[in-house]
Write a structure and sequence with these properties.
209 residues, Rossmann fold
Length: 209
Amino acid sequence: MTSDVGERYAARAREYVDHLGSMSAVHPADEHLVTSWATTVEGPVLDAGCGPGHWSGHLAARGVHVRGLDRVPAFVVHARRTHPDVSFRLGDVDALPYEPDEFSGVLAWYSLIHHDPGSIRRPLREFARVLGPGGGLLVGFFTGTTVEPFDHAITTAWRWAPDLLADELRASGFDVLETHTRTGPPSGPRPHGAIIARVAQGVTVSPAP
């Protein structure tokens, strides 16, 4: 994520928190998918790009050992205040401040939507690095028939055809296990996708250049 994207989120942090910063704004199907995945992870989970921390708080309440990270200071402040029993840290998904193999799972729920095709592998390789072999990843994203930009409320975001994002995951050291998609009426939310993957056995991932 570029510094410009972070600054745009920081400028509208209060608005984002008010509209999207609680589990009441989450679709029931997404809540079920993320919760089901996270509660099967045996070890710590990183909520990468945690925003206001609502997912971290939700998972912690269900017994998941979760930590949150976001690059927007206002989000981290809000998350710490709202979920005092969860550890939150300021940081960038493109250069995670963690050691190799530190986590058993990474949740990247819409936190990669502003990465274009030329930059998407950087955070994916960082996820693989901090997970280590066999570690699990769940990515949530906007879907399309190809890879294309669109006008997001904050700044330009990207839609991904699920098979093309799966290709990027494989190229970054992951095995793709499941792909989920969800659509609704034209007046409803944008088409959504989720991919569950794990770091391939025998893969050693170095920090992204």
